[in-house]
Amino acid sequence: MKKGEILDFNIESYAYEGKGIARIDYIEEDQPKSEKKFVVFVDGSYPGDKVKAQIRRKKRGYAEAKVEEIITPSKDRVEPRCTYFGTCGGCKQQDLDYTIQAKYKEEQVKDIFERLGGFKDFKIEPIVHSEKVFFYRNKMEFSFANKRWLTKDEIGQTEEVENKNFAVGLHIPRIFDKVLDLNECFLQSEESNQILNFTRDFFKAKNASIFSTKTHEGYLRHLVIKQASNTDNLMVNLVTSTQNDEWMEEYSAKLMELIPSITTIVNNVNEKKSQTAYGDFENTYVGDGFIYDKIGDYKFRISANSFFQTNTTQAKNLYQIALDYAELKGDEVVYDLYSGAGTISIYISQKAKAVYSFESVDSAVKDAKTNNKLNNITNVTHLQADLNRSFLPIVEHKEIPKPDVIVLDPPRAGMNPKTVKDLIVLDVPKIVYVSCNPSTQARDIKMLVEAGYKLIKIRPVDMFPHTFHIENVSLLVK
Predict the structure, then answer these.
(1) What residue spans in the chain does CATH classification 2.40.50.1070 cover?
(2) Where in the chain is the domain with CATH 2.40.50.140?
(3) Which of the listed residues 29, 134, 365, 421 has the most CB atoms within 10 Å of its CB?
(4) pLDDT surpasses 90 at 87
(5) Which residues contact 182 (CB under 8 A, 6 or more apart)?
(6) Can you tell me the distance from the alpha carbon of 39 to that of 61, in angstroms, rounded to the nearest whole number?
(7) Are strands 291-295 and 298-302 parallel, antiparallel or unpaired?
(8) What is the mean predicted confidence (pLDDT) over 278-300?
(9) Region for 475 from its dihedrals, namely left if φ exceeds 0, alpha if ψ lies in -120 to 50, beta otherwise
(10) pLDDT tens, residue by residue, 429-453
(11) Domain 6-77 carries which CATH code?
């Protein structure tokens, strides 16, 4: 077996992030046949496939390959709905039956905790399937680029390719300076597609420049659309590098004529070199700059820059599992770390004596305080705290009572080691850990187990169909 060689493989099982596994006899030159199998990870394949795949990397004991041709498809394959599937980085498993997607995600979480984490004697509860398989996202973040990703046909044609210097859509995986120009996406809504296409046409007609990460010049950066699931609210947030009231006022007026269901239009101005969808300041051109959505019986205000769970329907299931794991009786003090706009804090508030939520983003803390008022919540206190440092000085300074339960939902990178140490110092009897990255979650839980905690149970929740991402809720007790 050599790099670049194309070989036939029968795919037997599945690895993390869309790689099927083929196992072949392990033979070394001038050595007898070994009982050990040589493993080939085949990108783009599923168990049951027979494929032709090109060897991309070869190491001692395993190799990596990529599918060139599917000879015999797995019975679990389905026809992808989107014409961009296979090129766009938004969906990875749209060609796989959804129930099988969920099954593999559940197995992935189990493998992370048992094999990589080394945990034993804990319960794995069944994965919670997403109620919506398409149009489930309440937020889409599209990028502008002055280099459009060209198809194979466009690259091969002799005449000049039109519109190759203006694109708004999603990045190709691992390509940061080119964007796949999209006309439709099945992740958010039909209104979202209309907004995307109008925005492209409007600013192309203006000959608007696009921000370059190399020259740090150009006007357009991102188009962010937030759409409530349980109300009729819809936000359009155009992220630019400078302020241009004339363009934004005309853009807003014409966009409202096309889609009158839009409730607010804002312009975040990011003057920094870093390519983020957060502005240094924000201007509002339609509405009040916020949208409102509901999770369960609670209403939440969402700003352009505050975090809100991307799949609203599944967020309710996620929070209910966290509440069930906490087993609150009404007399507990609860800390909610990485609390965002206060969604978990407010959702669990009726079952607790008092909830103290800690969040680093100022706008999210302001939203959380507003959400208290919207829901007449009086037993939740929202505090700004940098959770990359110790938050115990704030606890001591504010004379906050010691918690009986801690609920936490950190970003993908997991907890900062200082935060883990704070949890150990607090010696809280019960921790409910919500995570969008089971690998970093298992890493953090391992530190807590070494400090005297026991992992009781976990439950995966599929928030993002057709992707490799999976949420997981874990319960630990001292």
Answers:
(1) 139-295
(2) 6-77
(3) 365
(4) no
(5) 84, 88, 142, 168, 169, 170, 196
(6) 7
(7) antiparallel
(8) 94
(9) beta
(10) 999 999 999 999 999 999 999 999 9
(11) 2.40.50.140
Q: State the catalytic residue, choosing from 82, 91, 185, 436.
A: 436
CATH topology of domain 139-295: OB fold (Dihydrolipoamide Acetyltransferase, E2P) (2.40.50)
Q: Confirm whether 436 is a catalytic residue.
A: yes
Task: Provide the sign of the torsion angle of the four alpha carbons 249, 250, 253, 258, taken in this order.
Answer: negative
Beta strands in 146-257 (DSSP E): 167-171, 179-181, 220-227, 234-240
Cite the residue boundaries of each domain of the chain with CATH code 3.40.50.150: 102-133+311-477
**Residue 250 has which token pair?**
């005309």
> Among residues 184, 177, 238, which one has the least CA distance to residue 208?
238
> In percent, how much of the chain has pLDDT > 90?
79
Spatial neighbors of 232 by CB under 8 A, at least 6 apart, are 261, 263
Q: What is the pTM of this model?
A: 0.88
Could you report the per-residue pLDDT of 199-247, keeping only the tens digit for each? Answer: 999 999 999 999 998 899 999 999 999 999 999 999 999 999 999 999 9
Question: What does CATH list as the number for 102-133+311-477?
Answer: 3.40.50.150
Does 34 score more than 60 pLDDT? Answer: no
**Please, what is the average pLDDT of the chain?**
92
Query: Quick one: average pLDDT of 349-365?
Result: 93
